[in-house]
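User: I want to check something. If I give you two sequences, will you return the structure for each one separately, not as a complex?

Assistant: Yes, each is folded on its own. Here is the first sequence with its structure:
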Amino acid sequence: RIVFVKDLKTGTDWGCGVVVNFQKKKSTDEEKAGTVVIEDAPKYLVDVLLRCNPRKQEGLPPVPWDKNSTQTPDIEIIPMVLDMIDGISSLRVYIPSDLTTQDRRQTVHNTLSEVEERFVNGKEGGIPLLDPLDDLGIEDKTFSVVLRKAETLEAKLKKDQFLEINKQDLKTYEERAKCDEEIKDLKRRIRQTEDVILKDEMGYYTKFLKKLGYLSKDDIVEVKGRFSTEINAANEILATELVFCGFF
C-alpha cells in the first residue's frame, strides 16, 4: 500500500513510500511496572520503504530524497510512528518478497516513479487517497457528514493566503510574539514593584495618621479623621489641625 509520510513536528516531508510491515511497540519494563506513564508514546510502528539521499558516510541518519537531485536515491526500510502517516493511498504496488538487496529495493523506486509520472505529472490530478466511504464501505451517516466537513476545511486551508507566508515572515512574527511576552512579563513585574512601594507608603501614612489622632490603634477613623474628609479645598490635614488647635 502506498502511503504519504510527513513529520508534522519538524515539517520534514518524506513523500510517498510503500508499507512493508507494521508492529505494536513493545512496552518497557518501567511501563509494564506502572512506574512510568508516557501518554504520547507511539503505540504502533510502521515499516515503510522510502527514498532517501545517498549517505555520504555510515552512521548518518537517513534524509528524504531530493527529487531535483540527479543522484539515484537509496531505498531504505524506515520504521515510522503512526502519527507520521499523513495519508493512505488507494493504490497498491507489487514489492519483491526479498528486500535485503539494494537492487531489489530499487525496483520499488522505479514503480513509484511510474505511479508519480502517471498520477502526479499526468492528467489524473495526483495519487488518489483511500476513501473511507467508497473503498472501505463505511455506511455510517454521521461519519460521512464529518468526513465531508473535514475535506471542505482542508480545501479551504489550502487556498488560504496565510499558507504562502515565507519563512522570514514567520520568523519575524515569532520574534514579535516573543517580544510581546517579554513586555507582558516586565509590566507584571512593574505592577508587583509598585504594589510593594504603595504598601510601604501606606504603612507610613497610617502611622502618621495614628500619631495625629486621625485613626485609633485599631485603625478606626476618629473625629478628626471624619472632619478632614468633609474638607474639599486646601490641605485637609493642615486645615483640620488649625481648626482643632483653635486657630479660627
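And separately, the second sequence with its own structure:
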Amino acid sequence: MAVHLSSGDIDRQLEQLKRCELIKESEVKALCAKAREILSEEENVLRISPPVTVCGDIHGQFYDLKELFKIGDDCPETNYLFMGDYVDRGFYSVETFLYLLLLKVRYPDRINLIRGNHESRQITQVYGFYDECLRKFGSVNVWRYCTEIFDQLALTAVIDNQLFAVHGGLSPSIETIDKITTDINRFQEVPHDGPMCDLMWSDPEEIEGWGISPRGAGFLFGKTATQKWNETNNLKCILRAHQLVMEGYKYMFNEGLVTVWSAPNYCYRCGNVAAILELDENLNRSFKIFEAAPAEVRQAPTKAPQPAYFL
C-alpha cells in the first residue's frame, strides 16, 4: 500500500531537523517507507541532466552540511547529487541522513543519493551510526529502518552521458556501465567482495593497471584502467568521493578522474577544507570551497565519535 506523507508534514520535519531536533521514531518509520517506494524504482545507474551540484562524503557532520547548502543554495533551487557516506564518524549521522532522505521524498527529481561504503550494516555497527541511533532513540529500530533504505540506494550515476559518478571507484570485473545495470542486484548488504563492493571501496592510485587495496576491500586502479573505462564508455571524467582531500578536490590522470570531498575539518580534527562541484548546462565545472561551520553555531555533542580506522 502506498504511504502518504503530506508536503506539510515533510516541510515541518525538515524545519525541525534543520534546528538539529530529532523527529519521532514513528515519523522515521513512515519516512523510510515512503523513501523505499521512490528509491526502489530507480535504476542501479541514475541518469542525470545538468545543471547539477555534485557532493562527496558528509559523515554525519550536520552543521557542515548546512554550510554546504549555504554555499550551494538549498534544494530544490539547486539540483544535487550526493555520492555517499552520509553516516558514521560525525556526531549527527541520524540528523544528516534523515534530512537528506526528507529532501529526497519532498523533491525526488531535485536530489539524488547514491550509496557509499558506510551505508552498510556491518560498517555502521563499528563507526558510530548504530550507537548514535541507540543513544538518541533508545532502541535499534531507527537504525534498522535506515539500513533497509541503504539497500535501496542507487550505486552510480551518469551525468549527460559524459560524467560517471561513483562513491569509490572502478572494478576489474566491470567493463561497461551497462554491466552495472544488468549484472548487479543492489538490494542487499554491501558484499565483502565482487563488483558492487568494488564500486564503493576502490581508490585511484599512481600505478599501472590494478593493485591490492590497503583497505581490505575493493582495488587500487591506475591511469590505464581509468583511461580504458572512460574510452570504452565514451566518458570525459569519473567523479568520486571516498578519500579525504585536504584541498576539497583533487584531479588525477590528466583530469580523467576527480575526487570531491565535502566534510570540512573531517572528524573535527583533520583541518581540511571541503568542496562541491557545480556543473552548468554545458558541463562547465566550478568548484566551491567551504570551511567547517563556526563553533558558535554548533550544539555540543554528547559523546565522542568512534576512532578512525583510516582516513
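Because they were folded independently, the notes below concern the second chain alone. Residues 192 and 217 are 7 Å apart (CA to CA). The radius of gyration is 18 Å.
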